[in-house]
Amino acid sequence: MPTGTRIDVTSEQLDAVAFNADGLVPVIAQDIDNHEILMMAWMNAESLQMTFDEGRMVYWSRSRQELWRKGDTSGDRQFVREAYYDCDGDTLLFKVEQEGAGACHTGARTCFFRQFGS
Amino acid sequence: MPTGTRIDVTSEQLDAVAFNADGLVPVIAQDIDNHEILMMAWMNAESLQMTFDEGRMVYWSRSRQELWRKGDTSGDRQFVREAYYDCDGDTLLFKVEQEGAGACHTGARTCFFRQFGS
Question: Which CATH superfamily is domain A29-112 in?
Answer without folding.
Answer: Phosphoribosyl-AMP cyclohydrolase (3.10.20.810)
